[in-house]
Amino acid sequence: MELRTPAELAVMRAAGRFVADTLTELRSSVEVGTNLLDIDAEVGRRITEAGATSCYVDYHPSFGASPFGHYICTSVNDAVLHGLPHDHKLADGDLLSLDLAVEVNGWVADSALSFVVGTPDEEHGAADERMIETTQRALAAAINTARVGNHLGDISAAIGKVLKRSSYRINLDFGGHGVGRTMHGDPHVPNDGRARRGPRLEAGLVLAIEPWVLASTDRIRTDADGWTLRSVDGSRGAHSEHTVAITADGPIVLTARSDGLGIPDSALLP
């Protein structure tokens, strides 16, 4: 695990602000009829104008069928992670998850949010809002636990406690991770675990913490595009994520958005 100096954390704030501002604007502008490819194009435009670098376009890990080739993950309804943007217009009541990682000045920030497009429908609306709110509470609990002297397992246990109390099953294949010069680094941060286990948290550690759930399963499948991860039973999913720096003065959310959702007041940037 790599630790960042206070000077490096100060530079990382620019990436955090870029990601936070971009997701905030997308949350406000996306509406019924918006095409996923238009969302992707807007993010690409913003990255180019800022002189930033996409973490996704050339991203090709072992589990990806090919380089991702787009600027943002757009997961709709039963898709919850790694949604590959495609020619699809959002419908009223769709559940959309946006996940964005961008490099600014050599440092990366990573964040995700989920929301209902237009008006929540009678069939899914209440369940969608419950899932979104649960992932936000799990994220807040994890952030509040990301303190010097605690253990990595304390973060995972805090997430798992909130998710299990709301009766969601937890998938451990994909979770949080270290962030710094690259998008994915050590350590892996599972969305469930045992408190007081794992390495101790030290000042300078930066983590992307990302609870996610599906309505009625913990099993996922890969779509035909080779990237998009969907529930095996067609149930919908929600995803919340922030990049968090652990400091001697407590956790700092580098990707804090203006809505403040899912973040303890003590963790907001000044």
TrEMBL record:
Listed under GO cellular component are: cytosol
Identify the enzyme class. hydrolase
Record's keyword annotation contains Transit peptide: no
Report the cofactor remark.
Binds 2 divalent metal cations per subunit. Has a high-affinity and a low affinity metal-binding site. The true nature of the physiological cofactor is under debate. The enzyme is active with cobalt, zinc, manganese or divalent iron ions. Most likely, methionine aminopeptidases function as mononuclear Fe(2+)-metalloproteases under physiological conditions, and the catalytically relevant metal-binding site has been assigned to the histidine-containing high-affinity site.
- Any idea which positions bind a divalent metal cation 2? 110, 177, 210, 241
- MF terms in GO: initiator methionyl aminopeptidase activity; metal ion binding; metalloaminopeptidase activity
- Detail which positions bind substrate: 82, 184
Protein origin, superkingdom: Bacteria
Among SUPFAM superfamilies, the record links this protein to: Creatinase/aminopeptidase
Report keywords, A-Z. Answer: Aminopeptidase, Hydrolase, Metal-binding, Protease
- The entry's a divalent metal cation 1-binding residues are 99, 110, 241
GO BP annotations, alphabetical order: proteolysis
Which cofactor does the UniProt annotation name? Co(2+); Zn(2+); Mn(2+); Fe(2+)
Instruction: Quote the catalytic activity from the record.
Output: Release of N-terminal amino acids, preferentially methionine, from peptides and arylamides
Is Acetylation set as a keyword in this record? no
Give residue ranges for domain Peptidase M24: 11-248
InterPro entries documented for this protein? Creatinase/aminopeptidase-like, Pept_M24, Pept_M24_MAP, Pept_M24A_MAP1
What Enzyme Commission number(s) does the record list for this chain?
Answer: 3.4.11.18
Q: Report the function annotation for this chain.
A: Removes the N-terminal methionine from nascent proteins. The N-terminal methionine is often cleaved when the second residue in the primary sequence is small and uncharged (Met-Ala-, Cys, Gly, Pro, Ser, Thr, or Val). Requires deformylation of the N(alpha)-formylated initiator methionine before it can be hydrolyzed.
Assembly and interaction partners? Monomer.
Q: What family does this belong to?
A: Belongs to the peptidase M24A family. Methionine aminopeptidase type 1 subfamily.
List the protein's name: Methionine aminopeptidase
Q: What lineage is this protein's organism placed in?
A: Bacteria, Bacillati, Actinomycetota, Actinomycetes, Propionibacteriales
